[in-house]
């Protein structure tokens, strides 16, 4: 496709996105809630999009659940995802320094503040749970700027627009590839790096149990903490009830590599620690997790080698 055609298509998609967001912003949140319910019905009952992926993920995470429990959670998940999009559109107009208490409740905020206000580099770890975008936005509202590593979107117009929203209060985005020097600058300068700790890292990742099954996790999440001796906190941003834009930001647990007797000084140990904390958060409200993405893919290298050996070597008799 000629470059000018690609640019025209991308810009048209960007204009459609801006128009959709303007429409959503013009609607009351109560209408957005009903719209999210209708779209959840469409995705779950009619289109059945990614249904098999979600079913398989829930079967792994909650093997003792009934079919009815899984069905209910799947539909609630879609409602949450669509409502989250509407909330993000409304956030800049509703959540400010003088109004955030109308929408946000803090729980164990001492863990968050002790970490992000500590001297030197800091790391905040979250997951694809609740409204994680709102978490970074609210930290900026509190006057605590952060830097987040995220994949650059293919559509450069949409990517710029999304990053402008994120940076409105001081949440700055670093590209997932080629940002090594930027990360060095942020952490060496005593900044706050926020990361999603539940992304699949491929066969070379750090494999730890997630809901009882090995999942590959990016080693860099732990290496940032260990290499820079950075205090680290796990944070959950959970919807309160069914109402739009009503959230609880919770400090789940925190560690400090500089503390005497620190016992999580290796990548596997620290990865296991924050993965367990994230699992604890997700279990609170499973319908608020992104079960649509494939968290469990492949097998740990040791298991693959064992399987290959079993197939090729003769069995003793």
Automatic annotation (TrEMBL):
Annotated GO MF terms: acyltransferase activity
Keywords, sorted A to Z: Acyltransferase, Cell inner membrane, Cell membrane, Membrane, Transferase
Location, primary (coarse class): membrane
Pfam families the UniProt entry points to: Lip_A_acyltrans
Enzyme Commission no: 2.3.1.-
Coiled-coil residues: none
Record InterPro entries: LipA_acyltrans
Start and end residues of each stretch annotated as Disordered: 298-317
Keyword Disulfide bond assigned: no
GO cellular component, one term: plasma membrane
Identification of the protein by name: Lipid A biosynthesis lauroyl acyltransferase
Gene name, Swiss-Prot/TrEMBL: htrB
């Amino acid at each position: 496709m000629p470059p000018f055609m690609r640019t025209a298509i991308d810009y048209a998609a960007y204009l459609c996105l801006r128009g959709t967001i303007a429409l959503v912003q013009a609607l009351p949140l109560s209408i957005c809630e009903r719209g999210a319910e209708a779209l959840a019905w469409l995705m779950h009952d009619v289109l059945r999009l990614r249904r098999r992926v979600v079913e398989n993920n829930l079967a792994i995470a909650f093997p003792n659940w009934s079919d009815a429990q899984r069905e209910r959670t799947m539909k609630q998940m879609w409602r949450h995802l669509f409502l989250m999009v509407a909330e993000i559109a409304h956030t800049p107009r509703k959540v400010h320094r003088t109004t955030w208490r109308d929408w946000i409740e803090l729980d164990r905020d001492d863990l968050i503040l002790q970490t992000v206000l500590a001297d030197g580099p800091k790391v905040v770890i979250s997951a694809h749970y609740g409204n994680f975008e709102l978490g970074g936005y609210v930290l900026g509202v509190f006057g605590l700027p952060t830097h987040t590593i995220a994949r650059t979107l293919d559509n450069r117009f949409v990517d710029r627009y999304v990053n402008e929203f994120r940076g409105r209060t001081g949440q700055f985005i670093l590209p997932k590839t080629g940002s090594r020097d930027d990360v060095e600058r942020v952490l060496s300068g005593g900044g706050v790096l926020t990361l999603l700790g539940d992304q699949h890292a491929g066969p070379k990742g750090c494999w730890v149990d997630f809901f009882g099954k090995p999942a590959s996790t990016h080693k860099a999440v732990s290496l940032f903490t260990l290499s820079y001796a950075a205090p680290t906190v796990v944070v959950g941003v959970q919807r309160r009830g069914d109402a739009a834009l009503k959230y609880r930001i919770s400090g789940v647990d925190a560690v400090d590599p500089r503390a005497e007797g620190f016992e999580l000084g290796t990548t596997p140990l620290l990865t296991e620690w924050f993965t367990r904390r994230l699992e604890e958060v997700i279990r609170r409200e499973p319908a608020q997790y992104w079960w649509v993405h494939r968290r469990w893919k492949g097998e740990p290298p040791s298991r693959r080698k064992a399987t290959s050996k079993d197939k090729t070597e003769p069995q003793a008799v």
